[in-house]
User: Which sequence fits this backbone?
């Protein structure tokens, strides 16, 4: 059952409280993560082997394996077909994101360009703790492939038998990835950040993970490891806006699809007047017991609530302030309402667009900012695997036109050598 809150009962303090996510104890998490990072930095592969036994109850004989050919991986044909369909859609959408070279002549004789180059070495984290997520391999591997990254490492926790999940292996093979690191948690992030005997050091680490993975990414991006990350992230979340037009069974299913991620997930319903809250509660009661991960879902619902508001304008204003990872618009005017979205990771429009399609196969990426970070971060895309380099070419005529202004500005700032670098060329001319 969801806790129900009426908008008219919410004051300014109450509104601020509604924006809060389940609290993360970062000091406690850091106390666990920091020693793991240091051990991997000092001991390399030996630390990875030890942590595989400690955290994953797995005995691994090698830390990095190479995926088999797609046809050799033992996986049901229908599973392979589903992943191929998702791969094709994700590839199509991400292919279209590749930027074209930008060339601008800012004044006669002064030409500026911007060109994209792939990040050379990237590490992709794929969760495998309470749930194995091979779909994340596609979401990270496809844009890395499209961008043209030279070295790509996938890290995922090993199975108890020391191997890798066949679906993860299949997805990696589809994406042309030839290194799978059998490690999870902070130890995997540290191995990719520093490099080990078997793991190449990467320049950027991307991918979702639990609070320990997130903490490790954030700690390492501010360390001498010299590594970037995609975004800070927290537990998974969804906000659903529903009106009288919405089917309560659909809304309940969408809330539960996020609640089953973990006990610290949060789901929020913003119910516009006319939506049947009682029917929703009945659907939650009926649908939850059927879920294999119902214990996670029940715990997550305890972190969650339904907010009753008078109209969709107020609903979208609240959503923009909350800045959800996933936003579902299940309203009669969903497409119109979408134009007012300013802060969200990914938006799902209309009654037949469950968040699940974006998680797996529509083509958009499911690696998204959570915890309110959608206010300033985008989800993973091809851009996440590229860096932009600017170029400029100035002709003698162009320097004659722009040079005096550069000299004046440099001397205004007291940087005489900057001015002289231009003046000496003008004098030679």
Assistant:
């Amino acid at each position: 059952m969801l806790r129900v809150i009426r908008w008219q009962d919410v004051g300014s303090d109450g509104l601020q409280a509604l924006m809060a996510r389940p609290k993360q104890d970062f000091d406690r998490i850091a106390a666990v993560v920091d020693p793991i990072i240091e051990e991997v930095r000092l001991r390399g592969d030996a630390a990875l082997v030890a942590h595989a036994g400690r955290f994953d109850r797995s005995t691994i004989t090698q830390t990095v394996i190479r995926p088999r050919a797609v046809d050799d991986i033992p996986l049901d044909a229908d599973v392979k077909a589903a992943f191929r369909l998702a791969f094709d859609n994700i590839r199509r959408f991400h292919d279209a994101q590749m930027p074209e070279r930008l060339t601008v002549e800012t004044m006669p004789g002064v030409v500026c360009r911007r060109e994209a180059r792939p990040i050379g070495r990237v590490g992709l984290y794929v969760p495998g703790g309470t749930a194995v997520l091979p779909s994340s391999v596609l979401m990270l591997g496809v844009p890395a492939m499209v961008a043209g990254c030279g070295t790509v490492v996938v890290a995922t926790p090993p199975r108890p038998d020391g191997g890798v999940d066949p679906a993860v292996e299949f997805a990696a093979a589809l994406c042309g990835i030839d290194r799978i690191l059998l490690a999870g948690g902070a130890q995997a992030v540290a191995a990719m950040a520093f490099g080990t005997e078997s793991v190449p050091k990467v320049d950027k680490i991307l991918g979702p993970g639990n609070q320990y993975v997130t903490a490790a990414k954030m700690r390492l991006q501010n360390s001498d490891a010299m590594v970037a990350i995609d975004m800070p992230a927290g537990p998974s979340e969804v906000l659903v806006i529903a009106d009288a037009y919405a089917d309560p069974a659909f809304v309940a299913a969408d809330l539960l699809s996020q609640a089953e991620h973990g006990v610290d997930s949060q789901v929020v319903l913003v119910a516009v007047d006319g939506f049947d809250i009682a029917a929703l509660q009945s659907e939650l009661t009926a649908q939850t017991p059927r879920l294999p991960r119902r214990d996670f879902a029940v715990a997550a619902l305890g972190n969650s609530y339904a907010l009753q508001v008078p109209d969709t304008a107020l609903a979208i204003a609240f959503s923009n302030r909350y800045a959800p990872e996933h936003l579902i618009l299940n309203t009669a005017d969903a497409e119109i309402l979408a134009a007012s979205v300013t802060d969200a990771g990914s938006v799902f429009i209309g009654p037949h667009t469950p968040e699940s399609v974006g998680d797996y196969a529509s083509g958009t990426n499911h690696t998204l900012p959570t915890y309110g970070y959608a206010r300033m971060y985008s989800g993973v895309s091809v851009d996440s695997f590229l860096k932009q380099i600017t170029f400029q070419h100035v002709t003698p005529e162009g320097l004659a036109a722009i040079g005096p202004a550069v000299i004046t500005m440099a001397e205004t700032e007291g940087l005489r050598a900057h001015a002289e670098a231009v003046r000496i060329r003008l004098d030679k001319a």
About this structure: The longest strand covers residues 110-118. The chain has three domains: 26-229, 234-378, 395-428.
